[in-house]
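Quiz preparation item.
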């Protein structure tokens, strides 16, 4: 058995989340079981949902916002004719309908939910209202009215009509999209009621199901070569942002919090040629000797460290 101190490792574990546990509970359990101090997750999954849950270790926790902003792909099953207070199978039935949509009606309605749309989050969600979680207020029967938020749905497909009461779908969407709300609104569009009975996340940015690792919380599994091989480099979530290469001396300055004139950098020409509109990018990463140095901003000709990565 290989003994490894995970507090010295920075990277991503892509878990295949099991049903019946919250994302936060899963992170807390991993932290306690394996004594990991710096840990966080890159996008909440409902307790009834399964699938990809990126877990950040060490310095990768500084990059969680990048994962949260990535595209996500889900498959989900809808039960027609019943609305629940949670918009999924774990809630109480609050409304019923005898209407069951057919294939043609469903496919026609889907077009209304593709592209940039506004969506009202479910009341049973982790959104904070005056510092309190929405789901906690909902459990106390405190009236909640969420404002609609802009989201983007890239694809939304009907995969299969299971029977008159159930249908299976697939969606690729952006940050902040609630599948439960999507099902609620689609059901209303079809003049019926509906809720989610199954939900699985298949993709988060560059992470897919081939990257996943299932943890059953036997302590010895954390020391296995298989586990260590499954840890992904933290730079993988930055594949789609500009990279500025630095010399070792330049990297040391940035890690010390110093700003540097862009024109003095050794590899500035290569960077400017590759990214002529670099000033329009909100975030740029810097790399030295194939290691991430810092997230930076370039302002008035100066490279300024915004978030330093310490190995």
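Solution:
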């Amino acid at each position: 058995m290989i003994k490894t101190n995970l507090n010295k490792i920075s990277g991503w574990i892509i878990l295949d989340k099991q049903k019946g546990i919250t994302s936060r509970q899963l992170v807390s359990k991993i932290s306690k079981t394996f004594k990991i101090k710096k840990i966080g997750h890159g996008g909440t999954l409902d307790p009834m949902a399964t699938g990809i849950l990126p877990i950040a270790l060490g310095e990768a926790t500084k990059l969680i916002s990048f994962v949260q902003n990535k595209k996500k792909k889900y498959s989900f099953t809808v039960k027609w004719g019943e609305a629940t207070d949670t918009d999924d199978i774990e809630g109480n039935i609050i409304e019923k309908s005898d209407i069951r949509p057919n294939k043609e009606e469903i496919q026609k309605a889907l077009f209304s939910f593709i592209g940039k749309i506004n969506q009202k989050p479910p009341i049973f969600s982790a959104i904070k209202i005056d510092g309190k979680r929405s789901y906690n207020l909902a459990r106390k029967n405190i009236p909640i009215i969420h404002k609609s938020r802009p989201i983007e749905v890239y694809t939304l497909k009907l995969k299969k009509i299971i029977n008159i009461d159930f249908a299976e779908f697939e969606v690729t969407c952006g940050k902040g999209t609630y599948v439960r709300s999507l099902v609620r609104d689609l059901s209303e569009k079809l003049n019926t009621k509906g809720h989610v009975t199954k939900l699985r996340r298949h993709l988060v940015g560059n992470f897919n199901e081939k990257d996943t690792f299932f943890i059953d919380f036997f302590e010895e599994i954390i020391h296995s070569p298989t586990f260590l091989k499954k840890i992904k480099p933290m730079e993988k979530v930055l594949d789609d942002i500009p990279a500025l290469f630095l010399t070792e001396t330049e990297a040391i300055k940035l890690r010390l919090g110093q700003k540097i004139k862009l024109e003095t950098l050794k590899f500035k020409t290569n960077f400017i040629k590759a990214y002529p509109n670099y000033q329009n990018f909100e975030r740029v990463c810097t790399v030295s000797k194939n290691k991430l140095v810092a997230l930076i901003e370039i302002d008035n000709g100066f490279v300024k460290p915004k978030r330093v990565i310490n190995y």
